[in-house]
Design a protein that fits this description.
Layout: H1 3-15, H2 18-31, H3 35-38, H4 41-88, H5 95-105
Transmembrane segments: 20-38, 44-63
Protein name: Low affinity iron permease
Organism: Mycolicibacterium fallax (Mycobacterium fallax)
């Protein structure tokens, strides 16, 4: 796995915990009364909008990375199960029949990352 993949895994595990959600709620609770300090409603809204937009943008990229790798891993497992099943099927001894069954089932051929 690449450094980014490892970072995405670690971050995904980190942000999916209850304490991270609690931290986000706390951040909003701290932001809400900051109107008393900032005084300008536009600046007050800009602060929370900018912060949440940046965090959302970055987390979407990380979650997409995790999702793509999870999908690929699931597909590899399905392919392995199909191949094991074909190995047990007497009618699938010839390579031509195996190829036709793979095409009919929809076995995907992808290189793992």
């Amino acid at each position: 796995m690449s450094i980014f993949d490892r970072f995405a895994d670690l971050t995904g595990r980190w942000v999916s915990q209850a304490w991270f959600f609690s931290f986000c709620v706390l951040l909003v609770l701290i932001w809400a009364p900051s109107i008393l300090v900032l005084r300008d409603v536009d600046t007050w809204q800009l602060v929370i909008n900018t912060a949440t937009t940046i965090v959302t943008f970055l987390l979407v990229a990380l979650v997409q990375n995790q999702s793509t790798r999870a999908d690929a891993a699931t597909q590899q497992k399905l392919n392995a199960l199909i191949e094991a099943t074909l190995d047990q099927e007497p009618s699938a001894r010839s390579e031509t029949v195996r190829r036709q069954l793979r095409e009919a089932i929809g076995v995907e051929r992808r290189e793992s990352s």
